[in-house]
Amino acid sequence: MKSNSILFFLLAAVLVLSVGMATAQEEMTKDQWQQEMTKMTQMRNDLQAKLKSLDESITAANSTSVKLDADYEKCLDELYALVGSDREKAAAYREEIEAAEAKAAELMRLSDADLMARSSEITDLEAKVKELWGNKLSLVPEFWDRLTELDNKVKSLKDTLAKQVKVYTVGTWSQDRDCLWNISKKPDIYDNAWLWPRIWQGNRDQIKDPDIIHPGQKLTIPQGTEMTAEEKTAARRYYARKAEAAAAMQAAPAQTPPAPAK
């Protein structure tokens, strides 16, 4: 189709030249006119020959391309078979990788503060990439390269996260008056005592009861000055339990102390 268009264009150009020459034929002799026509005819024949050669080259290239595509598809099937898989499983695996890539791209667009708030998603992504590596399809070059790039992105996210982490070492009550409330209101922590639930929820592996912390504990200080929904919920439950305990103590009947021994 393209070669036919080219031929049409060239013939049209020849026709235009011929018409142009026709307007000047009164100034040309018959021999000159014949020479020009012979020259134009030869040009047309040469162009037709070149177009024919071009068509043959295109046909040969298309044939080679079809063969190469068939060879590539056959190679893929053999490669999938080598790792005990097939095209359908590879397609599903590819979708999983694409989802992980999308999550990595989303996390990398976040600000440092937002990334800190969603640090658990980095952990989940790291676990997912590790799971993907466990599939033998990861040996296929396409998947190997993409998973390697995902590893690099996870590492970058973790490095960014590590730079944002602040650690506070708990002192003694007698000297430092350290409790979550007092730690939270320190100017270099939050400068706001009411944000203490952030420290509690960020260190649940160490703090079972927020009223009890121990000297020497190294507490991770989550970044940001806004509590998450989970932290707010935990704080409400804490204050509710405290209120219930206080009400129960007030409602308890006073006990008569035992009489001294005689």
Account of the protein in words:
By secondary structure, this protein is mainly α. Among the domains are: 87-164; 166-250, Membrane-bound Lytic Murein Transglycosylase D, Chain A (Roll), CATH 3.10.350. 69% of the residues lie in helices and 3% in strands. The chain is built from ten helices and two strands, in the order H-H-H-H-H-H-E-H-H-H-E-H. A two-stranded antiparallel sheet has the order 1-2. The mean pLDDT is 84.
Q: Please tell me the CATH architecture of the domain at 166-250 by its name.
A: Roll
Strand content: under 5%
- What is the string of helix and strand elements? HHHHHHEHHHEH
How many helices? The count is 10
Shape: elongated
Query: What is the helical fraction, as a range of percent?
Result: 55-70%
Main beta sheet: strand number and arrangement? Answer: 2 strands, antiparallel
Task: Tell me the name of the CATH class of the domain at 166-250.
Answer: Alpha Beta
Gyration radius (Cα, Å) is 40 Å
Can you tell me the residue ranges where pLDDT is under 50 for at least 5 consecutive residues?
Answer: none
Distance between the termini: 122 Å
Strand order of the largest sheet: 1-2
Mean model confidence by pLDDT: 84
From the helix content, strand content and strand pairing, which structural class follows?
mainly alpha
**Quantity of strands, as a count:** 2
Q: Kindly identify the CATH topology of the domain at 166-250.
A: Membrane-bound Lytic Murein Transglycosylase D, Chain A
